[in-house]
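QA checklist item 7 of 12: single-chain prediction sanity check.
[x] sequence parsed
[x] length recorded as 363
[x] structure emitted
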Amino acid sequence: MLSFKNDTFKIMQIADTQEGTRVSPDTIDLINAALEREEPDLVVYSGDQIWGKTSFKGSREKVARVLSELTKPVRERKIPFTVCFGNHDRQVGLSNEEQFAIYKTFDYFVGESEEGIDGVANHVIEIKDGSELKFLLYLIDSHSSLSIGYDHVHDNQIEWYRKTRDKYEQEYGHLIPSVVIQHIPLCEVFELLTEVKKNTKGSVRGFRTHANKFYVLNKGRVNSAGFMKESPADPQENSGEFDAFKEKGEVLGVYFGHDHNNSFNGKVDGIDLGYTQGAGFHVYGPGKDRGVRIIELKKDATLDTYDLRFRNLVGNQVKEPLRYAIYQIMPTNMFDAVTRAIKFFAVVACAAVAAIILLYFFG
């Protein structure tokens, strides 16, 4: 049973470690430092723990070893932990069901997987104060990629949430304050942004359903320390998940990862929506602002949240400076890669034309 040990219950969200068969020592240093500072009551790895089809090749032994390394800092401190799955985990050649079975072998793993609905590791965790139920934490599988973008949480998962919410309300005679963690963001996160002109300083370019639009954070609606360095990659279809969460008002916050370069939170229709930046150093990310999120639940049915960053926890020195530098210039997604390639070849073409003109007139 998970319980308050003092006035707050701390959840640490670790997003997008996205490690291959060799785990970054900087990723582990970040996790260790955050755990030492915060001493959380529960840790949630919120998807894309691992990736790499060519390196893992479906090897259960390799997957188990890497998952063991990533969760070792938590298990060594005897902290309960659970997981969501992201869009990259299954790319290692081992299904999410098979990976979940590996997690189940680890000490202090408290995750479950609801049967009869789509996805893996959909579950709800009770958080109590003594015998009194104070909060529910929903973990939801937000699925993977479609041919045209990202999938959305499915209808039967939303109905599972509704039935679970209503069951607790009927049993206890009142709604239970709740928090949701999943990998891919809700479409409504765009309500925290402002659409701007193309050349606006600090703007990011949208893609797919937001193609050719440019956005900045709405500073009046998000936390002052928040940042956004890439456009949210939300589902291609709004399934009504957010509408379900706001039906009865018991959901206080929804937190996600997926887009490594974003960390901010703000309220939409009374629900706090929050991005957690990537924690992994063997994938693209926001430099030394890689970090984790703390969600601090309080006995008065409120919450607070903030992120912790590598630069403040560990310092400015990384153990793999060359790999760090390479990942800092990597494209964030296929759209970004194509855009960079077009720009590169356009520059090369212009240079070639200029050279031909110079040779023609001065050669």
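[x] summary fact logged: Residues 334-362 form the longest helix (29 residues).
[ ] second reviewer sign-off
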